[in-house]
Records
---
Amino acid sequence: MTSKTKIQFLDLVTPHQELKAELLAVVEKALATAGFIGGPMVEEFEEEFARFCDAKFCVGVNSGTDALRFAFMAAGVRPGEIIVTVPHTFIATTEAISQAGAQIALVDVDEKTYTMDPVKLRAYLEDGCEFDKTRGKLIEKKRKQPVVAIVPVHLYGQTADMDPILELAKRYDLIVIEDACQAHGAEYFSKVDGGWKKAGTMGLAAAFSFYPGKNLGACGEAGAITTNDEAMAKRMRMIRDHGQAKKYYHDMEGYNGRLDAIQAGWLSVKLRHLPKWNEARRALAHRYHELFGDVSEGMVLPREAKWTKGVYHLYVVRVNDREALQAHLAEAGIATGIHYPIPLHLQKAYEGLGYKKGDFPVTERIAAEIVSLPMFPQLTRPQQEEVVSKTREFITARV
Ligand SMILES: Cc1ncc(COP(=O)(O)O)c(C=O)c1O
């Protein structure tokens, strides 16, 4: 944010000021009991968040990245095995795969939803892999390693198209771990099950991030894993706590990956407001759509597929000259973001994976054109109108 900024990309101060008394009461409680690690505040939040997600179990951990890593480990992913995800996501998705000792495979996203394209996933599983009868496993032809899991990312607050992904997972006996780090409360209409399902209940487990800027954010680092599988929940509780179910009895090596009690208490306070905040985000998204409605050229608006009820963690548009739009908006005091400018397969960190430019054309096209406009529950009507008016000014001058 520069001194010129009038409209922030995200206002994190106002909600915390509004909830100050309740948030400070959590600190008082922790100080009075010295219950800083684990204990009732963590257990209460885990129960509340599981209920919010319609999941049976929730395991609080210290970040979304560890939530993913612990889920892979608890699901039994072994070193060298391959996990498939998308190149259009935050690097934490793939970092967690490597940190669990597994290898990364990528498939492109869908041009309309920006989430995993089930057609590309099928192509990878059918053409890039073959079933090895002796090992009883699906093996990637190139690396000769078993493919064991799929990680659909519910990006920007919209779910991936889960029915065909789950169908492929079933056919090839693969685990599905949802990356729901941007999708607290998002829903998916499953034709297979004939009803709406919450993000975090469709795979074997799902990872959530409570990084402060998320729809449900802590006042620091925090994350959680949801699952309907009791054995998974038990293993994840052990992994986050040095591999122990009972103090100083270590069945395995684990991590120091617990959720702080104060963060859990703060998350409980904020969770009570999440349905209202998510509704506000949806209303703002619909209003952006309305206000931009007649702009038919020069800009692509986010499209909510009929099978998803998004929670608009981000409102992402596409334009040809995105740096120029950002500069135009910055000149008018409007902050924007890019999520994310460099596809993962073109990052220096992943040179060793052997991908090259052109391998994932949809992701590459998107990455060059996307701009995230201001989106947070407290964004006012006049502020939103100003964002739209300045964006339109730019688009009209260009087409
Ligand atoms: C899609 C996605 N996956 C994983 C993460 C990792 O979460 P955290 O920052 O809490 O480790 C994030 C959040 O930054 C994310 O947006």
Note: Residues 63-65, 89-90, 92-93, 153, 179, 181-182, 209, 211, 223 surround pyridoxal-5'-phosphate (CB under 6 Å).
---
Amino acid sequence: MNDWKNYINQNGDFELPNFLYRTVNDLMKQSLDMGTLLSEDQYKLRAYKEQTKKLFKNKWFDLAEALEHFGIIEKCVCSPINNSGKEIYCDVCKGARYVINSALSPNEMREISMFVGAAQGIQVQEKLQKGLMKLLEEM
Ligand SMILES: [Zn+2]
């Protein structure tokens, strides 16, 4: 089972692209296993496997492209894959080639809310001070 809770890294960020990538990969593996069950023809089986891998890989990039368009995820530093076409394992995205948009990570959101909180704190302080001055004036 592909549990999303396993995709929260040590910074508390949800590795959404990696989670989706693994989910698509799991489906691909199941399809590959099914093909192995259905065909004993090695030649056909190899063609089937190659085609299936390509299809799933392309679907992942379709999905990722849409999520990137809406600013949910962004390309990893390792993307695009180097010119030789060889896939090098990347420790940042773990093969997904995408990472969650840094503006959406819980750390960043926490910073924003702290900033907003601090700004509100200043307003409250100002109001209290004004109220106090008014009180003093009236006295
Ligand atoms: Zn990467």
Note: The mean pLDDT is 83.
